[in-house]
Amino acid sequence: MAVAVRGLPARLREVSGLLAGRFGRPELCAHETDPVRNLVLTILSQNTTDANRDRAYDRLAERFPTLPALAAARPSELEEAIRVGGLAKAKAKSILGALARIREERGGYSLDFLGEMSLPAAREYLTSFPGVGVKTANILLLFSFGMPAFPVDTHVLRVTKRLGLVPGTSTLAKAALSLEPYVGTGDHGPLHLNLIRLGREVCRPRAPRCAECPLLTVCPEGARNTKCCVS
Ligand code: SF4
What we know:
The protein is 58% helix and 0% strand. It is mainly alpha-helical. It folds into two domains: 8-24 and 150-230, Helix-hairpin-Helix base-excision DNA repair enzymes (C-terminal) (Endonuclease Iii, domain 2, Orthogonal Bundle); 35-145, Hypothetical protein, domain 2 (Endonuclease III, domain 1, Orthogonal Bundle), CATH 1.10.340.30. The site of iron/sulfur cluster has 15 residues, from helix 9 and helix 12. Iron/sulfur cluster binds next to helix 9 and helix 12.
């Protein structure tokens, strides 16, 4: 496990409180509560926008309304249905491979057994599927099972690096695993969603809007940027 940044629990609490003060505490809203469908959805979400992920999912659900129908699809049919989300060939392979394995191991299309496992064990199971990384597994475990998993996407990684909560060299998976144990109880979902919102609206990849950021008082990069701007 990565070495934690000093004072991390208190800093995460402070960041979470400041974000909630600006954005409120968002409700966890899984697109699909069924874990297998959520797995499909999170595979579709890789390297694309939410809008295109949703379009791909809607087309897939329209064409293959049940999980057995989806599992029986030919790769080319599935690729065609989800093409709008990009990486269609790789995603179709991941989805069909995951469904075939779940069916073979569990005798049906259910991941409900994950709810009985510990978070590390459930994550290890999910990340053993090709195409399923820590981020995808954590999204599923947080949104489908309410586990205290902390998904880190590119927005969350960028913001937490700028805040000095993770090292500048951290990867998505390393950041997720190093932050997760120190996020407050019940805060994993709201903090994850609010950091994404901040990353999209304020702490953008280029030209972050530090002067109007609710985290300016606790952000080393924000302090540097604003001094730079006024001098
Ligand atoms: Fe990002 Fe600036 Fe806010 Fe820091 S102060 S989190 S760099 S927008």
